[in-house]
Write a structure and sequence with these properties.
This protein is an alpha/beta fold and 296 residues long. It is built from eleven helices and eight strands.
């Protein structure tokens, strides 16, 4: 597999495109928004510069990586010779079903269709195609160029050949692939999201403040960042979407999103990307200042 198409130029999409391109693959990055594509390429360029500063990349390698990426606003313009298409669009089932139906119609017969979904059923997504044996989950972690883990999720009909190809490709990318079965939330989010939700519940019930909750988890449990800071980093809307998928899938109240999370998302307080979540990011992209509504 040499020719890769990545759908979505947001945080995950541009990170996935960066990782493939830096490893030598030819990447077509697709997004309906030219502005999103321009922002995605700018982010990739900035991240490559950071790697150069650390001494792990040369200017020549940076240029080679950027030259490996082409941008498009229409999937039909760039998918006819694809060996692998990775969908990294918004965590919305209807949108993903629509995209996979289009991917199936446009991609060559031997092309593997992968999704970066963090919670939605691979089997359900595969049902929108005529090649369910070639549909698989590749759940990368954020930030993609740095994080080693890739959850490789098999749908009910995913073939062993497809799984083996994606598993080996993940190793080629310098990642550590981990085999996971197709259940809501998979492994990472099935464990992570209830923890984040419980941290929000703890705040909601007045047990402790934002900084105090995060400090306990960082210093007491050796987490690199607290769960509320992590929720802001992931995006509160994304956290809510994942919890809803798990709640719908398991019908277990332990996955029900806390009302505070629901209200914050409805109010547009989505975390770092909106400028405010549990922390205030208006002056710094780091979680250094607690948001006004939670300040003491």
């Amino acid at each position: 597999m040499k020719n890769i198409v990545v759908i979505g130029a947001g945080t995950m999409g541009n990170g996935i495109a960066h990782t493939f391109a830096q490893t030598g693959f030819k990447v077509n990055l697709v997004d309906i928004s030219q502005q999103a594509l321009d922002k995605g390429i700018a982010t990739i360029t900035k991240n490559l510069d950071r790697i150069i500063i650390k001494g792990n990349l040369t200017e020549e390698q940076k240029e080679g990586t950027l030259n490996n990426i082409s941008t498009f606003t229409k999937l039909e313009d760039c998918s006819t010779n694809a060996d692998l298409i990775v969908e990294a669009a918004t965590e919305n089932l209807d949108l993903k079903l629509k995209i996979f139906k289009q991917m199936d119609e446009l991609a060559p017969e031997n092309c593997i269709l992968a999704t970066n979904t963090s919670s939605i059923s691979i089997t359900k997504i595969a049902s929108a195609t005529n090649r369910p044996d070639k549909v698989i989950g590749m759940h990368f972690m954020n930030p993609v160029p740095i994080m080693k883990l890739v959850e490789i999720i098999k749908g009910y009909s995913t073939s062993k050949e497809t799984f083996d190809q994606i598993y080996e490709m993940s190793i080629t990318l310098g990642k550590t692939p981990t085999e996971v079965n197709d259940y809501p939330g998979f492994v990472a989010n099935r464990i992570l999201m209830p923890m984040i939700n419980e941290a929000i519940e703890t705040l909601y019930n007045g047990v402790a403040g934002v900084e105090e909750i995060d400090t306990v988890m960082k210093l007491g449990m050796a987490h690199p960042m607290g769960p509320l800071q992590l929720a802001d980093f992931i995006g509160l809307d994304v956290c809510l979407a994942i919890l809803n998928v798990m709640y719908d899938g398991f019908k277990n109240p332990k996955y029900a999103p806390n009302p505070l999370l629901v209200n914050m998302v409805m109010a547009g307080k989505l975390g770092a990307k909106s400028g405010e979540g549990f922390y205030d990011y208006s002056e710094s992209k780091k979680a250094e200042k607690v948001a006004k509504m939670f300040a003491k």
